[in-house]
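Kindly review this protein for my students:
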Amino acid sequence: MADSNEMTINLVVLGRTQTGKSAAGNSLLGSSDFESHRSPSSVTTCCSLGRSCRISGIIRRNGCELALRVQVLDTPSYPHSGLSKEQVRDTVRSALAHYFGEEGLHLALLVLRADLPPCMDESDHAIQFIQELLGPTWKDFTAVLLTHADKAEEAGFSEEAYLHSASTTLLSLLSSVQHKYIFLDNQKSIIKEERAIVLRKLLNFVRQNNYQVLLLKHSKE
């Protein structure tokens, strides 16, 4: 909280190369802070923090409207084409402590492509990676962000139909994070109304968690 009329939510985006992780961060911020383009190798090699402008009309508490600010930490992908798992983990862990060490983290967003369902090994590796970063309460502070939802829609799948036919691996992952998930349409993500819908869903997850934050301190192993 910067003041009594403003609320800040702190987010980190995690995911594989080419899942649209940095693009999702830009959509949440309503900006182009993070480099994002198709590439045969991992684009993001270090962590960077993006901050949104004040956003109105999104949240009310105790009958009063609050201005919202969003902070997003973009991270290198895991697996990474040029960094080891340990390098990615230590880089992200250090950045989380640096940027959110005092204020805490509200949500980690695991970014997956809706048009490329995860295999079991990929899901297991992602969960293990998040556990190492966030600790034993990771489930309370993790949500799944399904990008390229427009591709699934083009294939004739509504959100309900998509989940009905989703793999057991994805359904198990969603269940483990208490069904905290959001579909992000990459074609509409820059539209103000679409962004507002996504932010309200994120705020609902934060509210369900009683506005708790995860405090992260850097520790050398």
Observations:
- The chain is about 35% helix and 20% strand.
- The first strand starts at residue 6 and ends at 15.
- The longest helix spans residues 192-208.
